[in-house]
Design brief:
3 helices
Length: 562
């Protein structure tokens, strides 16, 4: 649809430029660490009594990829034009020192990952991987296997060693065929301590494997995960989870999982699916506290906001957790759990979104209608669903969506704003976005800022939204937006505040981008095209392109292009 757009008066400052979802205890990026200065004339350095090899180039890293030495980076490593060699030194520390490695793909006939071993022995593993960014926002790395049943992860594919992963950010598209697939780790055994790790991208699996935003499978593992976040879209054919797809083990070697302050913002789709853990059982113990799911859960059989399928767990304890992502299922569906176990203890948890199922076992909190638990206290929900489940009928408190947002804000000590992602539960692909407004700041030092606002008229089953902006002179930039909103709150020229909703703009959601340093003299025209990417990360839904024009800092008009 072609149309002129000019919906807002001059706005000095738009508060919505700030991300709607600052972290609670979980962080949107690894916690800062003190970067170590490494002079050019040094080849090694002693850190806390250990010698580290200083690496400055990708070629040099390839030379030391299998050397049994501690490594510290002194620069970003760009592998463009080089073959990537998996970094698989045993028993050492890899310190990225705040730098990034990018420009490569990882595949082959082993268990694809950037670090660790190729085989199932797990002997060629690191002890510590820290302070590193893998990939870049606009140059995601590809980690994949076309062979059936492999373990695939951006950091570790398969390992049974003892690891510490901390301060790690990953921008990647990770995929497998019937494998165990995770944004950070595929299939890990042993002992793993993980802190301040974040994943952006997509994680996909076909042909009956498991897929998780951070972990594909926790298998006979002692796992402690703290302050970790998944922003990636997760899609598979079996168990799927925004954080962990599956927790498993055996009677003699059960998994022990502790998760604190973690969050999932990505959609998860598969068979047994949840925002946090898709399935868990085999005598394992799970403790989860201060965790949040925002992503849509789309399940073929068992769908839950926090947990999907639970069976034979020795102990499950959940406290101070919330779900605000819609849950859709063709089988069991629950705002917190698709089903529970008798060992469950749950306290001070809430779910504030739509829960829907084509089956009969669909509950505001728990789907399975015969669930019994050890203890359930201080539970809250928004969407009322009829079920015989005692977790709904005894003691749970219904709240409006607005009350649920206030409760969630209070729980995490942060303001999550006016948007609950995916609360409509719509499973359609994104409609073409439309530019609906521009706003400009006051002129300062001969320049001003222009903010572009676009609507998305459908659900949020997408991997990214953003704008392509063609500036005069042929320079074109593409910028992805980190957040979408239902409501914009802004400060007007008279310093009073106002608000405008996405519905008032004829959309379901709205997103915005600022262009800085626009000249306040002469005529400036730039071509703007809003877009949304489907979950596969490749299909792009482009909206109408518009020419936006300013003359001497004054808005002239916005015209749809032919």
């Amino acid at each position: 649809m072609k149309r002129n757009v000019r919906l807002f008066s001059v706005i000095l400052a738009l508060i919505c430029a700030i991300s709607m979802f600052p972290a609670m205890r979980a962080t949107a990026a690894p916690a800062p660490h003190e970067q170590i200065d490494l002079p050019d004339n040094m080849e090694t350095i002693m850190i806390e009594g250990e010698e580290y090899r200083i690496i400055r180039t990708a070629e040099e890293m390839n030379n030391y990829a299998e050397a049994r030495v501690n490594v510290i980076l002194a620069a970003d490593l760009d592998y463009t034009g080089l073959d990537f060699k998996k970094i698989k030194t045993a028993g050492t520390t890899f310190n990225g020192n705040g730098y990034a490695i990018y420009g490569f793909e990882v595949g082959g006939d082993g268990n694809p990952s950037v670090f660790g071993c190729d085989n199932m022995s797990g002997t060629d593993d690191f002890n510590v991987i820290q302070n590193i960014t893998v990939g870049l926002p606009d140059r995601k790395v590809k980690i994949s296997s076309e062979l059936s049943g492999k373990s695939v992860g951006a950091i570790l594919g398969y390992s049974n060693a003892e690891h510490t992963l901390e301060n790690i950010t990953v921008y990647a598209n990770v995929s497998s065929k019937g494998g165990t697939t995770g944004g950070i780790c595929g299939n890990v055994k042993g002992i793993l301590n993980m802190k301040n790790c974040v994943f952006y991208g997509t994680v996909t699996e076909t042909d009956g494997g498991t897929v998780g935003g951070l972990f594909g499978k926790v298998n006979s593992l002692s796992l402690t995960m703290e302050d970790c976040v998944n922003y990636g879209a997760v899609s598979g054919t079996n168990d799927a989870g925004g954080i962990i797809a599956s927790v498993t083990g055996n009677a003699s070697a059960p998994s022990t999982v502790v998760i604190r302050g973690c969050a999932n913002f990505g959609m998860a789709a598969g068979s047994s699916v949840a925002g946090m853990i898709g399935s868990a059982g085999t005598n394992g113990t799970i403790a989860m506290e201060n965790c949040l799911n925002v992503g849509l859960v789309d399940a073929k059989s068992n769908g839950g906001g926090l947990f999907g399928y639970l069976k034979n767990c020795a102990s499950v304890e959940v406290s101070n957790c919330a779900n605000v992502g819609a849950v859709n299922s063709k089988g069991k569906a629950g705002g917190l759990f698709a089903m529970t176990v008798p060992t469950l203890k749950i306290d001070n948890c809430g779910t504030f979104s739509l829960v829907s199922s084509t089956g009969t076992e669909c509950g505001s909190l728990v789907g399975q209608n015969d669930a019994t638990v050890a203890s359930a206290t201080n539970l809250f929900y928004t969407a009322a669903k009829t079920t015989t489940n005692t977790l709904l009928t005894e003691g749970a408190t219904q709240k409006t969506l607005e009350e649920g947002i206030v409760w969630t804000n209070a729980l995490f000590g942060k303001t999550f704003g006016n948007l609950i992602l995916n609360s409509d539960g719509n499973c359609a692909v994104p409609a073409d976005p439309q530019l609906v407004g521009v706003q400009e700041s006051a002129v300062a030092e001969g320049k001003f800022k222009v903010r572009l606002v676009a609507t998305l008229n459908d659900s949020l089953r997408y991997s990214a939204v953003g704008f392509t902006v063609a500036l005069e002179g042929g320079n074109t930039v593409t910028k992805e937006c980190q957040s979408v909103y239902r409501k914009l709150i802004y400060t007007k020229a008279d310093n009073t505040t106002g608000e405008i909703t996405a519905a008032q703009l004829d959309g379901t959601y709205v997103f915005a981008l600022a262009i800085d340093n626009v000249p306040a003299t002469g005529t400036v025209t730039f071509k703007v095209t809003p877009y949304a990417k489907a979950l596969d990360g490749t299909t792009v839904y482009s909206g109408t392109s518009y020419n936006v024009t300013y003359t001497n800092g004054a808005y002239v008009g916005t015209l749809a292009c032919d």
